[in-house]
Prior knowledge:
- The chain has 13 helices and 14 strands.
- The chain is an alpha/beta fold.
- It has a ten-stranded mixed β-sheet. It has a two-stranded parallel ribbon with strand order 1-2. Strands 7-8 form a two-stranded antiparallel sheet.
- Helix 13 (368-380) links the parallel strand 13 (348-354) and strand 14.
- It binds S-adenosyl-L-homocysteine.
- S-adenosyl-L-homocysteine binds at residues 178, 180, 182-183, 224, 228, 257-259, 280, 282, 322, 324, 353, 355-356, 361, 399-400.
Amino acid sequence: MGLPLTSSLLGMDREEITALVSEANEPGYRAKQIMDAVYRQRVETLAEISTLPQGFRERLAESGVTVGAARIEKKFVSVDGTVRYLIAFADGQSVETVWMPEGDGGEAGDGSEAGAEAEPGQSTSGAEARSEKDEPIAALKRCATQSPSPTPSSRPYAGRASSGRSTICISSQVGCAVDCQFCLTALLGVKRNLTAGEIVGQVCAVLKDQHVAPPEDRINLVFMGMGEPFLNYENFIKTARLLVEGVGIAERRMTVSTAGIVPRIRDFGGEAIRPKLAISLNASNDALRTRLMPVNKKWTLEMLMAAAREFPLRTREWITFEYVLLGGVNDTPENAREVAELLRGLRCKVNLIALNPGPGIDFTTPSAERVTAFQKILRDSGIPAFVRRPRGRDIYAACGQLKRTVEVATSPELQLQAIALSPPEG
Ligand code: SAH
């Protein structure tokens, strides 16, 4: 059939699957059957594509075509219901994908659609204290070794009713090259880009494991896991299209977050199909931002803010700015006033995230009062600002904690014993 030696259906778009079907001299409607099987039914093997004749399936297999489904290697369940998945690919590399069942507390960068937005003034450390107090450690340990539950084929979407505001957080690279000083993923360095099939495969694997199916179930999706999506731009944008046309997740339910890769922000604004934009600001002036996010040396705040101001927003769309608050570092009233100045006049909102701690991260989580004071200054300047509830900190599923941590033990201080699968790389 003139195909490459191995090629996976997952990651192919309608045109590529149509080409595959026509090369095999099969009728055109087979392309839709394959699209439906891979992205809607989320089959894992060619044998499961029962709409195709056996002979065609065999010829596909002989030419090295596979579905290329992602494999859930481990699953950790938090006391707050968040689930962290370790997802493995054919070459043995793995990434993390997070399921947040009751919305994301603003993590999507869009409280109104993502659902559970933190109330103004809600204390992040208060939420943390609660989850620490109630932690069923034994259950966590059990979950850490639990294997993924198989989807019962007779009742594939049993979780539908409870999934109205769920969010999936997906990874775009194995590790990350951006080197933000407060982020655990940065300690891994970057191993490689994920293919579009590997990115969309995370979504398919999680939907299947959670027994939910868009568009019937409202699923929000954030490109906020491991990696910098805009440093894997082509695969990221192809994934976004596959999620819309294949899986059935609407553009407005997806948000991509970037550390500030300015030329790609501009490219992104010109895409016909695109998620919403979130920018990790994290500092209020260049000196501070360069210290916390070395990427700021190349693309300064001035360049970043110019790209944000020129970004072509759609109706009722705004840019989200994420701001990780680091105790005594970027959380002063003066910092808040500088942020308000930077964002003045922009159609935007700010998500404040109190640092999620981790081993090797030399910053502290600010007090709830400090967070609220920062928020108040922004709000008093007319900028919508929300405090994001930390999700799944106990299982290392929260923002900035994704580091392929395979063992989770808990203590009230969250001084956890974390054993990474591979040692940090340069
Ligand atoms: N590379 C992209 C997406 C991944 S990071 C980006 O930088 O936006 C997703 C979000 O997590 C970013 O807003 C980042 O600033 C935040 N983050 C990173 N480390 C964190 C930590 N330790 N605590 C809280 N948020 C963190």
